[in-house]
């Protein structure tokens, strides 16, 4: 398993962030920013797994104090992390963002506010009603996507959840970039109730980055 490392990064302009990252053993295909509320053992495994696929993967430490994530916090942390990747020689068109659970909502915020090579949201809530007062409902910003975006959502087999995902899909399709929204009936919003759905979502994530970061 690829090893992860943590450092306190300081940009020349004074911005900084604590980052946990993993580097590929061979050549670097590109860079991926991993968003999640708190850098947990699971996040470290995800970062290491992405590095094992050839990506320089890095997770900024956000939301670790239990406070609700704001769009401003997410974008600020992402911008610093993007600067770190560029300093390490990763071209801008080879950089993407992926978010899990609450980080999935954050990834869509980034994809609607920054021009990246690709973005992926895996799970997460806040489609019609915001996940917190600090983040917008996703259907309100999906039409403004500026980065190719893939969203994957479990709905616990709930009809209301199915309708929410359909609303998000319709909103995203009105944007000017490539989008795809996939619903997994019976999977929880965190994908931890259905290992098969989680494995398929992982493969779809890798395929999306393979297709757009090249």
Determine and state the CATH class. Alpha Beta
Q: Using the CA coordinates, give the radius of gyration.
A: 16 Å
Q: Tell me the series of helices and strands, N- to C-terminal.
A: EEEHEHEHEHEHEH
| Count of domains | 1
Mean pLDDT: 91
Tell me the β content: 15-25%
With strands numbered from the N-terminus, the spatial order across the biggest sheet is 1-2-4-3-5-6-7-8
Gross CATH architecture:
3-Layer(aba) Sandwich
CATH superfamily placement: Alpha/Beta hydrolase fold, catalytic domain
Largest sheet: 8 strands, mixed
Using the alpha-carbon principal axes, give the shape.
Answer: globular
CATH fold type: Rossmann fold
InterPro entries: AB_hydrolase_fold (IPR029058), Dienelactn_hydro (IPR002925), Dienelactone_hydrolase-like (IPR051049)
GO molecular function: hydrolase activity
Keywords: Hydrolase
Protein name: Dienelactone hydrolase family protein
């Amino acid at each position: 398993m690829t090893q992860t490392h943590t450092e306190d990064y300081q940009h020349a302009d004074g911005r900084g962030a604590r980052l946990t990252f993993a580097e590929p053993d061979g050549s670097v295909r590109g860079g991926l920013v991993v968003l999640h509320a708190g850098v947990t053992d699971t996040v470290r495994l995800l970062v290491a797994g992405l590095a094992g696929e050839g990506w320089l993967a890095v997770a900024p430490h956000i939301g670790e104090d239990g406070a609700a994530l704001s769009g401003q916090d997410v974008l600020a942390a992402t911008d610093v992390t993007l600067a770190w990747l560029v300093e390490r020689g990763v071209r801008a068109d080879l950089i993407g963002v992926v978010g899990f659970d609450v980080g999935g909502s954050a990834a869509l915020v980034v994809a609607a506010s920054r021009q990246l090579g690709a973005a992926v949201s895996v799970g997460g809530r806040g489609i019609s009603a915001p996940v917190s007062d600090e983040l917008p409902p996703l259907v309100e910003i999906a039409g403004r996507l500026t980065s190719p975006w893939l969203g994957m959502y479990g709905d616990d087999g709930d009809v209301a959840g199915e309708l929410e995902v359909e609303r998000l899909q319709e909103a995203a399709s009105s944007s000017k970039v490539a989008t795809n929204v996939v619903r997994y009936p019976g999977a929880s919003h965190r994908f931890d109730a259905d290992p098969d759905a989680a494995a398929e979502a992982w493969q779809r994530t890798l395929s999306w980055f393979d297709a757009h970061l090249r």
